[in-house]
């Protein structure tokens, strides 16, 4: 694949985020225990590619023209990803993300059953069918013990490289109540990925529910993910779990330098409140957090793009992601054309290879 | 110049006195049984440093753990909150801010070791020896500034 500006993606590129989903919940039913099969059937429960409004089918952001004309967005079977992502991109590996369980109802036992089913479906239908694929496991968000148990159950599968969590939650991920989940991920050498969106009803803003898709979409990168980064750092997650690696998926990155600047500055004044921080927040983020390159919300002027990338060492912090099938515009080409050859190698492959330990 | 600050028994722990030494204003602090004296002039922008709050260092082994280290105290300038070690005058808020070259106490300051992730800042406030003589607290300005940690490292 060659982008419009001529930067080659291919020959060993690692795609850090490719979406996949079951076409309907019927595909997951074989992976559910009998009780939950009946529960799904009698309750008329569904899952949808639109994910509670996160990806409206007609929104231009929901699918690239190519994915739209293929009709299946996100990909529903491994052959689809092979034909549209792996082969044309001559990729070395791709990390799958299935966010279908993000919009689960609030029954914690059902959410545990559903996430187990998604994981077993990922292993059987995807990981077993192409060795270039890696998967992000999902875990229940309402029951930390069950999440830990699920990581214990399948976290050591060689194809599982990440625990993906919705960026929208009832309490920020740094909160002490979530610590055991994060610890289990770190102990199994799994990256913790925070992905845009989450359960319907987890408001897009701290002061309440919004009515427009515009506000909802904007909030992932401009509000919610920043609160999560602040939470993870401030609550001392990385002080307690020095091996933990976090990836921010489909949450943008253009907000990072401004947040780090203020975060460092304010920490200097109130460090006493969080004495477990052993370095300034921006250093901790550099050690423990990476961001996928899509969406790349960048200016048009290449000089400005370069200046901006230098403010946070983008070549070391970003991991290339197609985010297939979503369409976030042309920012990604601006990013790739502004990178030096060494940075290009790091962003397209090296950073993800290191973060996800892809040999 | 030697200035008698106070009778010892009239200067209880936790208190401070501001004394005048010629044109200089000096803050004398009693923390426990130790005395410290600091130029009442913040090297950052000249704030009345010695009117600021003093607090011990806090250490931590992990989230939720707070260990006060009473043996070392910091004073925070009331103007912009820069904190200075009472014993050494070393600032802890930097690095990165340019040193104020107009103050000779600030220019040659290199950093000591980072402490709890906090890099020593560019400034060192002037400190003076204090001692107790015949039950009087005496500050001595003749020796000039005592400095520590001024020789190496990133600012
Ligand atoms: S003048 Fe003291 S901190 Fe600015």
**Pairing-aware structural class of the strands and helices of chain B?**
mainly beta
Number of helices of chain B: 1
Q: Low-confidence spans of chain A: pLDDT under 50, at least 5 residues?
A: 1-7
Shape of chain A: globular
Protein topology:
The complex is a heterodimer of chains A (359) and B (155).
Chain A: E1 14-19, H1 34-43, H2 65-70, H3 78-86, E2 93-97, H4 108-125, E3 133-138, H5 144-154, E4 160-168, H6 179-187, E5 191-198, H7 213-234, H8 237-240, E6 246-249, H9 256-270, H10 281-288, E7 289-292, H11 302-310, H12 314-317, E8 318-319, H13 331-338, H14 341-355
Parallel strand pairs in A: 1-2, 2-3, 3-4, 4-5, 5-6, 6-7, 7-8
Helix pairs in contact in A: 5-6, 11-13
Chain B: E1 2-7, E2 16-21, E3 24-31, E4 34-39, E5 54-59, E6 67-76, E7 83-85, H1 104-107, E8 127-128, E9 130-133, E10 136-140
Antiparallel strand pairs in B: 1-10, 2-3, 3-4, 4-8, 5-6, 6-7, 9-10
Bound molecules: FE2/S2 (inorganic) cluster.
What this model shows, in words?
The complex is a heterodimer of chains A (359) and B (155). In chain A, 41% of the residues lie in helices and 12% in strands. Chain A is an alpha/beta fold. Chain A has one domain: Alpha-Beta Barrel (TIM Barrel). In chain A, strands 1-2-3-4-5-6-7-8 form an eight-stranded parallel beta sheet. In chain A, strand 4, helix 6 and strand 5 form a beta-alpha-beta unit. Chain A is globular. In chain B, a hairpin with a 2-residue loop joins strand 9 and strand 10. A four-stranded antiparallel beta sheet of chain B has the order 2-3-4-8, with no helix packed on it. A three-stranded antiparallel beta sheet of chain B has the order 1-10-9, with no helix packed on it. In chain B, strands 5-6-7 form a three-stranded antiparallel beta sheet, with no helix packed on it. Chain B has a single domain, classed as Rieske Iron-sulfur Protein, CATH 2.102.10. Chain B is globular and about 45 Å long. Chain B is mainly β. Chains A and B meet through helix 8 of A and strand 5 of B. FE2/S2 (inorganic) cluster binds next to loops of chain B.
């Amino acid at each position: 694949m060659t982008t419009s500006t001529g930067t080659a993606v291919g020959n060993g590129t690692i795609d850090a985020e490719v979406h996949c989903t079951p076409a309907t919940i019927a595909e997951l039913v074989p992976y559910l225990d009998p009780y939950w099969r009946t529960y799904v059937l009698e309750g008329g429960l569904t899952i949808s590619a639109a994910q509670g409004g996160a990806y409206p089918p007609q929104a231009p952001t929901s699918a690239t023209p190519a994915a739209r004309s293929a009709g299946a967005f996100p990909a529903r079977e491994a052959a689809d990803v092979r034909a549209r992502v792996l082969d044309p991109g001559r990729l070395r590996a791709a990390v799958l993300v299935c966010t279908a369980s993000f919009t689960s109802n609030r029954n914690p036992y059902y959410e545990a059953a559903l996430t187990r089913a998604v994981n077993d479906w990922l292993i059987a239908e995807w990981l077993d069918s192409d060795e270039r694929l890696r998967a992000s496991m999902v875990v229940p968000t309402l029951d930390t013990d069950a999440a830990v148990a699920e990581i214990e159950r399948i976290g050591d599968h060689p194809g599982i490289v990440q625990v993906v969590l919705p960026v929208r939650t009832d309490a920020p991920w740094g909160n002490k109540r979530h610590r055991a989940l994060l610890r289990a991920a770190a102990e199994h050498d799994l990256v913790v990925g925070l992905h845009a969106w989450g359960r319907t009803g987890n408001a897009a803003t701290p002061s309440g529910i919004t009515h427009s898709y515009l506000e909802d979409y904007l909030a992932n990168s401009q509000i919610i993910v920043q609160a999560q980064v602040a939470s993870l750092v401030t609550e001392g997650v990385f002080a307690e779990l020095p091996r933990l690696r976090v990836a921010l998926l489909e949450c943008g990155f253009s907000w990072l330098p401004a947040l780090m600047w203020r975060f460092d500055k304010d920490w200097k004044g109130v460090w006493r409140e969080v004495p477990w921080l052993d370095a300034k927040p921006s250093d901790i983020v550099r050690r423990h957090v990476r961001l996928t390159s899509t969406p790349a919300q960048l200016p048009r002027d290449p000089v400005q793009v370069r200046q901006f990338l230098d403010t946070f060492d983008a070549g070391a912090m970003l991991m290339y992601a197609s985010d297939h099938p979503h369409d976030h515009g042309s920012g990604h080409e601006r990013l790739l054309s502004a990178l030096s050859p060494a940075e290009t190698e790091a962003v397209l492959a090296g950073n993800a290879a290191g973060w996800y330990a892809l040999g | 110049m030697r200035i008698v600050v106070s009778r010892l028994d009239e200067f209880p722990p936790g208190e401070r006195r501001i004394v005048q030494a010629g044109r200089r204003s000096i803050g004398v602090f009693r923390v426990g049984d130790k005395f410290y004296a600091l130029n009442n002039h913040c090297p950052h922008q000249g704030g009345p440093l010695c009117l600021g709050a003093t607090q011990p260092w806090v250490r931590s082994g992990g989230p939720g753990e707070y260990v006060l280290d009473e043996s070392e105290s910091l004073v925070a300038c009331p103007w912009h909150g820069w904190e200075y070690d009472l014993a050494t005058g070393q600032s802890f808020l930097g690095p990165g801010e340019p040193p104020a070259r107009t103050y000779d106490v600030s220019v040659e300051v290199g950093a000591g070791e980072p402490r709890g992730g906090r890099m020593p800042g560019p400034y060192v406030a002037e400190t003076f020896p204090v001692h107790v003589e015949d039950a009087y607290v005496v500050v001595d300005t003749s020796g000039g500034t005592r400095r520590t940690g001024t020789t190496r490292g990133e600012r």
